[in-house]
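Write out the bound-state structure for S-adenosylmethionine.
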Amino acid sequence: MARIDPAPNGAAVSDGIPSKDRHPLLPAFLAQVLAALVVGALALLAAPALLGQPLFLAALQGVLALLIAWRLGAPIWWLPMHFCFLPLAVLARGMALPGWVWGGGFVLLLLVFWRTDQSRVPLYLTNRRSRDALQLQLPAGPCRVIDLGCGDGAVLRQLAAARPDCSFVGFEHAPLTWAWAWLRARGRHNLSIRCGDFWTHSLAGYDLVYAFLSPAAMPALGIKARTEMSPGARLVSNSFAIPGQVALDVIDVADARKTRFYTYDCGRSQ
Ligand SMILES: C[S@@+](CC[C@H](N)C(=O)[O-])C[C@H]1O[C@@H](n2cnc3c(N)ncnc32)[C@H](O)[C@@H]1O
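---
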């Protein structure tokens, strides 16, 4: 069940996402359909000869879709996708691949990226150097650690192997990613990979919470952490800071992508 929390700025958030951003696919759909209708109608009524040039019409539709999406306030990085969508579909159709390739590709992407349109947290992985840096953040004694959205589980597998005295939990909602992480965790006594939505799981009792999410999820994660985490527990966020909350520590990882860890003391003792 979705948690509804007040965001720091007063806007409602559900599963970490401000309510106004919950359905980004609707304006995208509107921009594409409107542009297709306008270009299709113009071609039919004013220049039927253009109907024989589908790529040209698709490019026109792309320009119009881009403009409509821009007017609807789409994020800037969506605009090239709006422009390319129909032209690429026309080109792909020319490849005459069997229908199952497209259906299979869609299902595969869905199983890995799941409802990224709602969670706004796609799959990208913590690299080796960052995993090593995270390992150094573990408390010296036995502890409980959770990875919120554990992806392929590589972070937890490394930590669980390095620290048999600690127990590790990972939550993942994308079915294929979860299945992979779960399979590879089998036989490890101190590692549990669970399928589900981490927003519904309490952070109480964990000594270290690890999150590699996205800017969209950080306001609600800050609230969840402050509300649920135990005194003295630490939240380590890879790359994304909690807005309006001062980090206890900021750690620069010596890797190519210049990863930065933000560490927060979110326990109720604050
Ligand atoms: C950026 S990846 C990080 C993966 C892994 N923690 C790592 O650092 O390598 C974020 C992951 O969180 C998952 N995720 C996003 N929202 C989630 C949710 N509400 N519940 C469970 N998993 C979620 C995504 O499917 C994705 O696999």
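---
Residues 25-119 form one domain.
The first strand starts at residue 4 and ends at 6.
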